[in-house]
């Protein structure tokens, strides 16, 4: 079995090497990642980048969340990172010179608003006046804002309770909050534990997927190299389908979660190929930034187009 996996990985590397134009790679690449970043975690575990770019020193730095990662990116501690849709908006508002270099497809089934199974809350409109826990400035913050707007509610109609995922889970289980907006794998863990009901997921809310960001000088100097790195992350993510059981076992060990939680997490994710940020994605991200500004959650407006890095070819409409 090990030989089969090694051959599969070798095949992925050889195909991608042909697909991306060759260029001299930089001396170093410092990558910021989170445990939930499937493609990055698998690429790191299988050393795909180290094998593809042996002349480049690849280093990995783990972060608990997107805001801390983008702060490190802004001060020059890392070169490339991946976060949800909200942290880069706040980073731009704070003046960080970061650029969007890629985006994953949306994962509407991997982010939800949960309520207790026996809760009288049946619709998003029923959240009016209730306590909702979520991580401030996260993609779940965006999910909640969009769901409230769709239901005809304002952010001020609920009682927001800003908590980290771990603290929010405890508050939810103890009955100290009425609902919890959260993403995977926390969602899958709560679902498998039982006693919860999905009030709303991201379906029909027009959210983007996770973004990949780089320091502008690094992106401008190493364009083709970055495209090759992102292609490698996509190839690593594909292993969750071609080598599902092995990937589940590896991710469970890396994330410190039971294998059923990882399996559920993967079931909520569509095939994930990283693509350039085109005009449609930029427009959606601009809508999100405007939504946060309108709800007085941001200090000023931002123009997302100023932070979109464009390789030679973009899929979809040009910006």
Automatic annotation (TrEMBL):
CC terms in the record's Gene Ontology section: membrane; periplasmic space
Alphabetized UniProt keyword annotations: Signal, Transport
Signal sequence interval, chain numbering: 1-21
Residues covered by the Solute-binding protein family 3/N-terminal domain: 28-249
Domain of life: Bacteria
GO MF term set: ATPase-coupled transmembrane transporter activity
UniProt keyword Signal present: yes
Gene3D superfamilies (alphabetical): Periplasmic binding protein-like II
Listed InterPro entries: ABC_SsuA_sub-bd, Solute-binding_3/MltF_N, SsuA/THI5
CDD domains: PBP2_SsuA (cd13557)
Locations listed in the record: Periplasm
Family: Belongs to the bacterial solute-binding protein SsuA/TauA family.
Chain's role: Part of a binding-protein-dependent transport system for aliphatic sulfonates. Putative binding protein.
Full protein name: Putative aliphatic sulfonates-binding protein
Lineage of origin: Bacteria, Pseudomonadati, Pseudomonadota, Gammaproteobacteria, Enterobacterales
